[in-house]
């Protein structure tokens, strides 16, 4: 048997080793990434400083504001633990955020979505103010793949398709109609642009199912999701400086700000008006993600009115319902106004009394 001094030395030695191991493990945990993102209320930002319409008037008694969601990569387990306890925080797995897209593909997709959103907002806002704008289709943007597509691995998200078998096709409908005449197993030569480079590749066509309101429809094609890539020539120049705000969800509010700078009447009428929703060139408002966070962001910045996309499709659309539920749950002093079109939002504001 050893002496008490030796036993004590062994005890403290083991304890120091355990302490050192724990310290090392804790230190390493700072560098172990997690497959999660944290989503929280972002900001509600006034649009007048961001949007400039040639010959327009930026003066507003109130304010039109876009709303954002704050996204943070849980780069270690400490951030993840914070997410479980922080108020108004939603935790999502990485594959829920960007699927199986590479960082390059995801960046291309976000850039396209923001560019399209701004083009759509400019067209919708100007046309609502009875201003002319010409739209040119310059290609078809590949935004995703259908399961079973033979194009995956050959084409990439972000590619802009502009010809098939040497035939110029710059709209989704004409490209789809041309390919639909062919049979599964046939190959077509696709001409496309990727990061500014002109490329050509042979792609085998497949049969796939498209879900429609009338039921499932079998089609032949590339089995990809496509969107029109456009260029616009407006009667008035419109500049939108949105910095690092990405995605399409500010479309409705951009178009309202453009409209307000052109028309004689100030449609804000002294109110602080926030909102969200995608916009088409025809002024249709679409559903977005993270609306509960945006409602909180709007309220934090003193918004009194919040435009939310109207829930049109019962089984899919939930924006207006979720926005109203969040306002009621948190007791926010905010009126949620569901709208299906830009014109509905304009009509609502026109009927408001001027704030005293």
TrEMBL record:
Leader peptide range in chain numbering: none
Segments forming domain PDZ: 110-196
PROSITE patterns from the UniProt entry: LON_PROTEOLYTIC, PDZ
EC number: 3.4.21.53
A Pfam family assignment: Lon_C
InterPro entries, per the entry: Lon_proteolytic (IPR008269), Lon_Prtase (IPR027065), PDZ (IPR001478), PDZ_sf (IPR036034), Ribosomal_Su5_D2-typ_SF (IPR020568), Ribsml_uS5_D2-typ_fold_subgr (IPR014721)
Residues at the active site: 249, 294
Gene3D superfamilies from the UniProt entry: 3.30.230.10
Domain Lon proteolytic: 244-352
KW Mitochondrion (keyword) present: no
Keyword Thylakoid in record: no
One annotated GO molecular function: peptidase activity
Transmembrane segments: 20-39
Catalytic activity: Hydrolysis of proteins in presence of ATP
GO process annotations (BP): proteolysis
Keywords on record: Hydrolase, Membrane, Protease, Serine protease, Transmembrane, Transmembrane helix
Family stated for the protein in its record: Belongs to the peptidase S16 family.
Name of the molecule in the record: endopeptidase La
Source organism of this protein record: Tumebacillus lipolyticus
